[in-house]
Amino acid sequence: MKYLLLKHYRGGPTPIVDHAPMDRWTPSEVDAHIRYMRDFAAGLKRTGEFVGELALSPEGAFVRTDGPGRPVVTDGPFAETKDLVAGWMIIDVESWDRAVQLAGELSAAPGPGGGPIHEWLEVRPLLTAPPTVTE
Amino acid sequence: MALSIVDDSQVRELVPAVIGILVRRGADFASAEDAVQDALIRALETWPADPPRDPKGWLVTAAWRRFLDATRAETSRRGRELVVDAEPDVGPVPATDDTLRLYFLCASPVLAPASAVALTLRAVGGLTTRQIATAYLVPEATMAQRISRAKRRIAGQPLDRSGDLPTVLRVLYLVFNEGYGGDVDLAAEAIRLARQLAVLTDDAEVAGLLALMLLHHARRASRTGPAGRLIPLAAQDRSRWDTHLVAEGVTILQHALARDQLGEYQAQAAIAALHADAPSTAETDWVQIVEWYDELLRITNSPVVRLNRAVALGEADGPHAGLAALATVAPDLPRYAAAAAYLHERVGDLARAADLYAAAARGATSVAERDHLTREAARTRHRLRS
Predict the structure, then answer these.
(1) Neighbours of A86 (CB within 10 A)
(2) b/e string for A49-83 if b means 16 or more Cβ within 10 A?
(3) Cross-chain CB nearest to A47 (options B113, B145, B268)
(4) Is the predicted ipTM greater than 0.90, yes or no?
(5) Residue B260 pLDDT more than 60?
(6) Per-residue pLDDT tens digits for B132-150
(7) How far apart are alpha carbons B17 and A35 in whole angstroms?
(8) Nearest CB to A132 within list B113, B136, B216
(9) Residue B230 and residue A130: Cβ atoms within 8 Å?
(10) Rounded (5°) CA angle B204-B207-B211
(11) Which of B117, B124, B372 is nearest to A134 (CA)?
(12) How far apart are CA B5 and CA B47, in angstroms?
């Protein structure tokens, strides 16, 4: 079963710890955080559970059509949005419980002072191919 | 074309026997399997241009050489003496026994299902890691790791231990039922492995599973419309069902049932056979299908079977009977909402049905099912307004 672990710059339930933004951390705290993330992905590769990951810039815009012959409408950068995705990781695991356990581990990445940042991670099942036998 | 002499599936069929030969010469299963995989990849690259006269002999030689190289490298790294070098006598043991043992080993109950599936496809099915990775939409490196971990997990389990046939059947069922595709037809591969297993064993449930696969595979062309649109059983064009596969499945099932060792796969195949036999949903023998669900329920006591039985009962005795049966099923099951929606539509409660179809679409686990259920919700709401 594949799950998407979604990291947010903003959004989700209220954070239980209000950290300073990462650019205010000490360089070694930043290094420790990045190393943890890298090791986490490497661990999933070793267990055969890693599918992919991507990080997103906070820049960008919302875009929509405004009808034929008219220029598209853009809105952004995302100063107003409550929810801003920072990146994702896709895992392929045996169960929902395993996905939740891994998200918990990812949420324990070290923050300022070296303790876990306790950030909320969104865990979402990916839709699959339909099974053949249903009746 | 040279390839016509040896196509991919012919090479693949040799893989379990060649692993067996290496193990009999003294290689451990994990190293033997790696060596044969390497030889297989080389065979797939070189055989089309330069087909060997003796494909099996070629694979054995190439894999054994690969195994010795890997062992030498490992031995010199550890500064130890190489002990395996000669080619010991393989002995008179038939290769079929080796292959059967591989089925049991790869489907070992200590492995997670996804790992057992991957290892079975590689060691018994003779697929490459890349093909398996593509079929399950994960990176090749991830699949390689999954397979090596599985092999470490079963290391030390002797190849000659008698295995757990239900676990093997479960693995083949998963290969048939769940998968994405890529360039490998997993359903066809599952059928090939089930056929081979049926030759190697004498078991009514192996035959039952093979029959079940053939009867469902027969409907394949009618199961999806343009752009992968899902077509439910009731709306399928039955003239497109493969009558040869149906006939073969029914024959295999009849022989299995005659042995009077009923199991879940035979019961499921019997239900599929009754559908295959019917010219339409209306002319289906639903009473007998309900009886088979009763058998299946007695064997498995599965909530999914209880749910499917309620739907069948809705056809046999009318939607009110179906709804009454559904009331005994846990509502958190996948497809519960879809079944409830259908039965409510049948009793004429369109508003409830539309809401349930919409809820079913939200809970769907595949895009094709979600789209189908969304269409059903829209259709029901439309009926409600008109």
Answers:
(1) 15
(2) bbbbbeeeeeeeeeeeeeeeeeeeeeeeebeeeee
(3) B145
(4) no
(5) yes
(6) 999 999 999 999 999 999 9
(7) 45
(8) B216
(9) yes
(10) 135
(11) B372
(12) 9
For the residues B274-279, what does the mean pLDDT come to?
97
Contact A132 B176 (CB under 8 A): yes
Quickly list DSSP for B116-162. HHHHIIIIIT---HHHHHHHTTS-HHHHHHHHHHHHHHTTT--TTS-
Average pLDDT over residues B337-359: 97
Quote the pLDDT of residue B94.
61
**How open is the CA angle B137-B141-B146, to the nearest 5 degrees?**
80
Query: What does the pLDDT read at residue A129?
Result: 87
Identify the three-state secondary structure at position B231.
Answer: coil
Which has the closest alpha carbon to B192: B254, B246, B127, B244? Answer: B127
Q: With 70 as the cut, is the pLDDT of residue B85 above it?
A: no
Strand partners, A87: A7, A55
pLDDT for B197 beyond 80: yes
- Which among A46, A48, A127 has CB closest to B370? A127
DSSP-derived 3-state class of residue A91: strand
State whether residue B364 sits within 8 Å of chain A by CB: yes
- Chain B nearest-CA residue for A92: B138
Q: How far is CA B291 from the centre of its chain?
A: 26
CB contact under 8 A, A48 and B180: no
Q: Inspect the interface and report whether the beta carbons of A50 and B272 lie closer than 8 Å.
A: no
Tell me the sheet residues that pair with B366: A128
Q: Determine whether the interchain pair A48/B230 forms a contact, defined as Cβ–Cβ distance below 8 Å.
A: no
Residue A22 confidence (pLDDT) = 85
Q: Evaluate if residue B73 carries a pLDDT over 70.
A: yes
- Chain A residue nearest residue B215, CA to CA: A133
Superfamily of domain A2-125: Dimeric alpha+beta barrel (3.30.70.1060)
pLDDT band at B80 (very low <50, low <70, confident <90, very high): low
Alpha carbons B290 and A81: distance in angstroms, whole number: 54
Instruction: Answer whether residue B207 shows pLDDT above 60.
Output: yes
Q: Note whether A130 contacts B145, CB cutoff 8 Å.
A: no
Cα–Cα separations (whole angstroms), residue B214 to B163, B186, B191, B295: 25, 13, 7, 21
Number of H helices, E strands in chain B: 19, 0
What would the pLDDT profile of B310-341 be if each residue is shown by its tens digit? 999 999 999 999 999 999 999 999 899 999 99
Among A residues 35-64, those touching chain B with beta carbons less than 8 Å apart: 45-52
